[in-house]
Here is the input.
Amino acid sequence: MGLKDAFFDEVKKQFIARPDESKDLALYKWPNSNVRIASQVTVQPDEFAYFVKKGEIVGYLPNGQYNLDGADIPFIGRLIDKGTGGNFLMSEIYFVSTRDFPNNRFGGTMGQVTDPDTQLAVAMGMHGQFAFEVFDAGRLIMNLVGTQGIQTNDGLVAALKEQILKHARSILNGRLREEKWDITRITDGSVNVEFEPAIVEGVNGTVADYGLRVTRLQDFAATITDESWSVYREITQRRANMGLARDPAWMTMAQGEVMLGAADGLSKGGGMNGTTGALAGAGIGAGLGLGLGQQMAQGMGNAGQAGATRVVVACSKCGAHNPEGTKFCGECGTPLTRSCPKCGAAVNAKFCGECGAKIE
Here is the structure.
């Protein structure tokens, strides 16, 4: 370093202020702890300058410009280094801003969350932004900077992110268990107004001793991983279908579609294979379709028993029972239509549709 550079470096050390590139930081530490006596300190309107020696806050300066010569600053005498002949002060200097710091991003996993409705373990995460402020610079320096060794803005933000994720996990999991929310209530954002304030309150209760305070959460969102979401949708769809299967109206409609399809398949000579195709064509799940097919077969076999309301016609050749209106036997193909002995009309039921005569 030349003589000229050394001169300007020495002059620079005598003017102490937060540099322009650190204007957006909540905490800035002056790099030198050996400060020439009578140096000038500039403190911005939204900050304080704290002087720390051997882990103790000796004093602080509010907004303004000061000469470190002891004339107007009572605590300067405690910082003078006698080993230098009284020409230097020995002190760490921290500039702490008290304004609000928004747009700090956070994100992380919530781990495996059990959905109370389906009992499915779902992998979830969360992300968003938060704003914070320093409400007590003394606590910040003594309890966080001094004991935790955090001396940068990134360190402050990282500490707050950790607490936000911790409390968010606890609160969201608690609501899921206690109030039996399904996970879609969290992921659709409709209940953010309920748990965002709870998260902020929990975090602030933890970080108050550090002189920090989260003022708000922004764009908070809980998410489900793509894999878990795919499984969740499949399970809930199956449950929805099962719920429909227990609905009497839906069962009646589905049975009607199955029996119509089965009859069509039988009339074409498809036998039970035709019935199976009809079940599939009706869009009914395999288990449900099999159950309905069995019900249909039992209904056809027992139609002549007490309580049956469906009219059947017995085939004169093979004895198989056929639904009313069937023209040919579904088993052997024998024509089922007969002539009324009274009026001669073609019939395939127990009574003539023209004259009402009983068909033996």
